[in-house]
């Protein structure tokens, strides 16, 4: 089946998960490849099976080249140990999952491939990221949208995934079901420490305290799963690694220094929080 037809089917089946980002009314219908809201605002499915919901194009700092590098790094298993810890945390729910700020979607695609059940929608403000994801993976369902004006219906999501991405907790609350939860992945203080050592002194240390405190103030029953491991990179992978992370964009690291980046530390925390108190 063509991607566009597969996506039209997904939309028909899960129309209740979406709402118009302009007028917030329900979507009544998918006619052909067009989604139409109660106020007649229309959104077209692209050939790749994605939907574009932005009111105006957004300029993001992530170029296609950077996204391709990020995708190759994902493919070589850079985040796999973290995702393997995350998977059982999300799968408990077996419900509807939203990946907020999915980039090129490798994480959701991996979780889906691993057996994640239920519909998974992945969205990002970067059209390039969504296009690349939709061209590469058959699942999740990919959407271009802004967290600040999201095209999703109120109280329909069991899990919101938020991996190394910005968040909007008020919007997350609106989208989550009463017993829904957010799984947020944040860098720990030693995340990519080998790369940080090339940075100016002020950027060599990092603390996630503020982010964590904000999460704990907002959500209930917060659990914290630290994940620590190292990844060995080849020269080619080091080049991709340097392109894919904003942390390296302002520094020039010659190949003669690659030995210092041969083994990279991944230090992350997976925060899980409930919208309401779980009995
Ligand atoms: C560091 S990337 C992480 C991407 C992906 N989760 C990953 O781990 O590979 C942060 C992502 O957040 C997205 N983003 C930033 N602001 C956003 C917004 N307002 N709405 C949706 N996505 C946004 C960016 O486009 C980018 O893809
Ligand atoms: Zn509308």
UniProtKB/TrEMBL annotation:
Full protein name: 23S rRNA (Guanine745-N1)-methyltransferase
Q: Ranges for the Methyltransferase type domain?
A: 98-184
Where does the record place a coiled coil?
A: none
Pfam families, from UniProt? Answer: Methyltransf_11
Where does the source fall among the domains of life?
A: Bacteria
What are the GO MF terms of this UniProt record? metal ion binding; S-adenosylmethionine-dependent methyltransferase activity
What phylogenetic lineage does the species belong to? Bacteria, Bacillati, Bacillota, Bacilli, Lactobacillales
Q: Which GO terms describe its biological process?
A: methylation
């Amino acid at each position: 089946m063509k991607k566009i037809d597969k996506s039209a089917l997904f939309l028909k089946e899960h129309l209740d998960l979406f709402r118009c980002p302009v007028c917030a009314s329900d979507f009544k219908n998918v006619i052909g490849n067009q989604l139409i809201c109660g106020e007649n605002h229309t959104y077209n499915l692209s050939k790749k099976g994605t939907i574009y919901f932005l009111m105006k194009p957004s300029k993001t700092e992530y170029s296609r080249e950077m996204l391709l590098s990020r995708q190759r790094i994902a493919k070589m298993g850079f985040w796999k140990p973290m995702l393997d810890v995350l998977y059982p945390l999300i799968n408990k729910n077996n419900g509807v999952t939203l990946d907020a700020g999915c980039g090129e979607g490798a994480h959701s695609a991996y979780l889906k491939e691993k057996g994640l059940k239920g519909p998974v929608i992945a969205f990002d403000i970067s059209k390039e990221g969504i296009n690349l994801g939709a061209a590469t993976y058959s699942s999740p369902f990919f959407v271009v949208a802004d967290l600040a004006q999201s095209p999703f219906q109120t109280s329909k999501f069991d899990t919101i995934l938020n991996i190394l991405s910005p968040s909007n907790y008020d919007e997350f609350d609106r989208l989550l079901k009463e017993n829904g939860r957010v799984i947020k992945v944040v860098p720990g203080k030693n995340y990519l420490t080998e790369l940080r050592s090339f940075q100016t002194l002020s950027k060599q240390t990092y603390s996630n305290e503020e982010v964590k405190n904000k999460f704990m103030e907002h959500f209930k029953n917060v659990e914290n799963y630290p994940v620590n491991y190292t990844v060995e990179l080849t020269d080619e992978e080091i080049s991709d690694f340097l392109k894919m992370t904003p942390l390296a964009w302002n520094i020039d690291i010659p190949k003669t220094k690659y030995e210092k980046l041969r083994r990279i530390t991944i230090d992350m925390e997976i925060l899980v929080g409930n919208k309401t108190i779980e009995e």
